[in-house]
Fold this sequence. Notes:
Oligomer: heterodimer
Mean pLDDT of chain B: 88
CATH superfamily of chain A: EutN/Ccml
Shape of chain B: elongated
Largest sheet of chain B: 5 strands, mixed, barrel
Number of helices of chain A: 1
Structural class of chain B: alpha+beta
Low-confidence stretches of chain B: none
Strand content of chain B: 25-35%
Number of strands of chain B: 6
Amino acid sequence: MIRGTVIGQVWGTRKARGLDGQTLLLVAARDADGKPTGRVVVASDTLDARAGEDVTVAFGSGARNVLRPGPENRDLLCDAAIAAIVEGAG
Amino acid sequence: MFLGRVAGTVWSTVKWPQAQGVKLLLVRPYRLGDLPPGAVAAAGAAASEPTDDLVVCADTLDAGVGDDVIVAFGHAARVAVSEKLPPGSKPMVPIDAAVVAVVDKVEIPR
């Protein structure tokens, strides 16, 4: 997972069917010092995260488990998802 | 997934048969500094900006050079490509990155 900050949202009408209904947010990754690394990821959001909020993003099967927990989720089109809204980090 | 701009295409004749007919694009990921100024403001600070590698992506949405696209990696990429295969086919194509959406709008609060 990575930690980052939500910076915006992205839309497309021409898309794979598996993306239907997913909210896609732009997240700027942060390094160990809390500074942006420059890397920007697109993550599926189910937690209603807002721009400016710090979040964690899970990748791969971890991301699918955010959308639908359990072993039967390999049909999902999701490789990154917001797993938590961060309140504090030390 | 990441947001990127299509920079070119790649083609080949010698490849795994499962990759036959799969169009390949070169996509340059957007970095924080490439986005509108509101992005840096939301992130709290600018970042040092090394250049990312171009990513070779399968494309089933007919994206063209200059289009902004969302690219998925890994199993999600194979799921996207297998949508174009007969129902029930397993996503066994030898790819690990695919265009999953052509972007209409990016909204970054000011």
